Amino acid sequence: MSKVAHVLKETILQWKVVFIVYISQFFFGLILAYSMYAEMYTSYDGSLALEYLAKGFDRTVFMDMVNSQNEMFSSSRGLAIILLIVYCFMSVLLQGGWLYTIRKKEFSIRSFLRGGWKYYFPFLGFAGISLLLFLLFGGGVGYLFTSWVGDPLMTFSSEKPYVLWIIFLVCLYALWTILVWSWSVTARLHYINQPSFIKAVKLGFDKVKQNLGKYIAIGWLIIGIHVFLMFLYYWIMGDRGASSWYIVAVGIIFQQTIAYSRVLLRGFSYSLVEDLNPIPTE
Amino acid sequence: MLKSLVFVIVCTMSWFTSLAQCNTAYPQDQSPKIASYNIEAYLDHDAKRATCQQTIRWKNTSPDTIRELRMYMYMNAFQGLHTTYLKGGDSNIFGQDLLQRTEKEWGFITINSMEDVNGNSLSQQYVQPNDQNPDDESVVEIALNQPIYPGETQTFTLDFVVKLPKTIVRSGFGKDDFFLFVHWFPQMGVYEQNKSGEWAWNCHQFMRGTEFFADFGDYTIKINASDHLVIGASGCRISEEKIDGRQIIEFQAHDLIDFGWVAYPTYDVYTSTFMDVDIEILMPPEHCAFADRYLKAVEHGLEYLGKNVGKYPYPKITVVDPPVHTLNSGFMEYPMMITGATFFGIPQSVRSVESLVIHEFTHMYFMATLASNEKEEAWLDEGFVTYYEDRILDHYYGDKKSLFNVLGFTSGNAENSRLEYTGLPDPSVGAIARPGWEFRGSYKGLIYAKTATVLKTLEGIVTRPVMDDIIQTYFEAYKFKHPKEADFRGIVDEVLKKYEVELPFDVSMYFDQCLHGTDICDFEVVSIKNNTLHVRQNGGLIVPVEIEIVFEGGKKEVVVWDGKGADKTYSFSEDTSIHSAHIDPEQKIYLDLNFINNSKTKHTNSKPLVKYAAKSQNWIQVLAQLASYLM
Ligand SMILES: [Zn+2]
To answer: A114: buried, middle or exposed (CB in 10 Å: 19+, 13-18, 0-12)?
Structure first.
């Protein structure tokens, strides 16, 4: 229990770093938000159709626009993809700084920036390996499963076992993601102490093997909380329309509170992993 | 909100299964009974074929003396890729590659012998009235030894064999001994007056985009099949016996235009009675959780149509849920029997299941009872059915959320139908009132969706009570007949005369434009300047429409534009200034392709724009966070 309290305390200490990461996500989102706003404003300018949207989601209001303007949302769609790709590269930087502050127990912004720059390229290597492992497993399992199943409706007595198999594979994939992520964070933490890439890769695997149960528990806990936050958002907000600025503002504040909590949760998960990997005293 | 995500996978049904006995109080003499059939079918499930003895009683209701008969032999459409039905569909027709088929997977029907009442053997030859394709054997002509005089009824006996194809669409066999027998017996064409007033056989070859056209009659069908099969059918079960591993079940039905049956070993049978109608539902075990949804959907159909159209004319309805491995046998209507379709795990708030069952059930009114020519005028059943499907779904599950309601994303069924039409790549691609085989690609968007939207627009103009009166009058006048477009339009004129329809509206021109023309409707507020309003019809459809004008200071005025001419300018008194103008604020003219340009205001409400922009921002934040875990 005291361990959890310790990790929670450390998570709170990370608030500045969490805030920087949150703000970076926020600004990436804001770029898209502006583009969406501009596109919608041009399309709907002056139309009373917006009154329907103010009452809640209205498929007709969106689809009439999509049908009458083939280009509707196309520039925002393209922008969203570019933003995500750029963010992925930036995320390596943010994560480097973040893990550095946790490893060094120095939660200052200066430390965060120093760590980020210092470890960017090796950490990009870890990210590359993670992505590769993630894709290889997905492709491999997908290939094996589809070649085993063939035409699912001829192989199985009905679609039910097929659906259950798919659910099982999604869970398996989630489990694999947990393992890859655990390795990726652990290896990076060890790299900060001894800058040998190969050694860190190996140490990462060893540690994950050693604490397999704990890593898996942490992974499912993080996934569970993420899913809970998503449901909480839909449960509380649903689609409350936009009948007043007050409702719009409350919606945005709630949305951003959850976004901040998500980033905080990541800090919590890093601290948990760090706690499993004390700095070796040689 | 979260309720919308509930996935029903547990079977909750407790109502279940003793075989239904039909309510004998139902009238058995509602139709002219022109073509009646007795068939004894022996199913060899391994060979996927039935050997049958058939008796046909056919009544000549024309003033002509009949010297030859024409009959549908529709299973021959599945003989191979040379038939008119499958021609040009060598790969990926109905989602299948037919080039890979083995001999066993094709189907056929053959009359081994046919005799008249005097025992004379009758000769037969295949004819191709539609396309002269010599390889098509979907219509047979029988030369009579003894003519049938006006008003006379003759009886014929036949021996025939029907071999099912592996299901391409509708009829066929599937994995694990699934069989659907529809379009499966030699069935009489319709001898009727054609458009130029001459009496002739209306007996089209089986062509894609077509379904039924046949006369009413009584059916007694005795099925002899292995007793491992669970059997369901149009009609009522009147006797049943089991001998040496086989079962012999006799079904009877009155006043139908067709008869279908299904067999599958693992079906669970659920039965219930609602409004004196027996409901029998055949579900494969993996879909047991949907039995309740099927039942509710049928009950909604019975209740709503009973109240708004007319009394359900049969004592029973059988609902068949095909297993997903033979899904192409689903999505269809046969008299007193419909086939649905579902998939394990579909959440309750996605009502594709209800929408489909209600659609097919509504065909019991528009197709089974109002037996229009579905080949030549498919809009008369599919369009009307879609219109009622929309009404029923929206009535029971809510206007804007009846079709789906998942995590804040919602759609109504009528809304969906309109969008199927307005979302066509070219909504003016063709007229509705054409034979089914002339359509390419836009069949559903026009026949189903546009017709439903045309009817909803008519309802918007004449009001719902008047619309209900029209349909009820139509149903009462033409049930157990073969109504045509002119009959329906005649009823509309007759009913509208009873009411004072205030709007300047020419219903005849409306139907001409909507059914035979390709004109679209797209009203637009072009500009509002001080006290002047400029509106436009971007399409050619002429319909009256209301325009609501709100002036600065809040005063409102509604003007009615007769919709004639492309542009119209309204000037109001000089001391006023227009704040906003809205064409058709109640969306009565549902055919309008774009409701966004129907209005203009001086003050854009940017609150929803900010809300949705913020939502898109949130999505990037979520995705960025997820990507961070992987990088
Ligand atoms: Zn239909």
So the answer is: middle
Q: Residues of chain B with pLDDT > 70: what percent? A: 95
Q: What integer pLDDT is reported at residue B361 of this predicted model? A: 98
Closest CB to A158 among B286, B605, B611: B286
Nearest-neighbour CA in chain B from A282: distance (Å): 30
**Residues of chain B contacting A262 with CB distance shorter than 8 Å:** 621-622, 625
Instruction: Answer whether residue B559 is part of any domain.
Output: yes
Distance from CA of B362 to the nearest CA of A (A): 26
Share of chain B above pLDDT 90, in %: 87
Q: Per-residue b/e over B520-537, b at no fewer than 16 CB within 10 Å?
A: bbbbbbeebeebebbbbb
CATH code for the domain of B427: 1.10.390.10
Average pLDDT score over residue span B473-493 = 97
Query: Are B556 and B496 in a shared domain?
Result: no
Residues B302-329 have pLDDT tens digits of 999 999 999 999 999 999 999 999 999 9
What number is the average pLDDT over the span B41-61? 98
**What is the domain extent for residue B584?**
523-608
Task: Tell whether B95 and B133 lie within a shared domain.
Answer: yes
| Angle, in degrees to the nearest 10, between helices A245-276 and A74-104 | 40
Q: Is residue B100 one of the residues assigned to a domain?
A: yes
**Total domain count, chain B:** 3
Q: What is the pLDDT of residues B217-249, one digit of tens each?
A: 999 999 999 999 999 999 999 999 999 999 999
Coil, helix or strand for B427? coil
Q: Is the pTM of this model over 0.90?
A: yes
Ligand 1 center–CA B235 separation, angstroms: 20
Residue B602 reports pLDDT greater than 90: yes
Same domain, B80 and B149: yes
What does the block give as tokens for B546? 């209301």
pLDDT of B90: 62
Same domain, B436 and B534: no
User: Can you give the pLDDT at residue B19?
Assistant: 55
> Does B415 reside within a domain?
yes
Q: What is the CATH number of the domain that holds B603?
A: 2.60.40
Domain final position from B516, B534, B554: B516
A252·B415 Cβ contact <8 A: no
Q: Is residue B134 packed enough to be buried (19+ CB in 10 Å), middle (13-18) or exposed (0-12)?
A: exposed
pLDDT of B14 over the 90 cut: no
Distance B463 CA to ligand 1 centre (A): 25
Distance from CA of B102 to the nearest CA of A (A): 16
B419 and A60 within 8 Å at the Cβ level: the answer is: yes
Give the pairing of strands B187-188 and B66-72.
antiparallel
Cβ neighbours of B415 in A, within 8 Å: 59-60
- The torsion angles phi and psi of A206, rounded to 5 degrees, stand at -60, -45
B473 and B503 in a common domain: yes
Selecting from B604, B611, B619 the residue whose C-beta is nearest the C-beta of A46 gives B604
Task: Give the end of a domain, one of B479, B499, B516.
Answer: B516
**B158 plus B36 within the same structural domain:** yes
Q: B366: CA distance to ligand 1 center in Å? A: 9
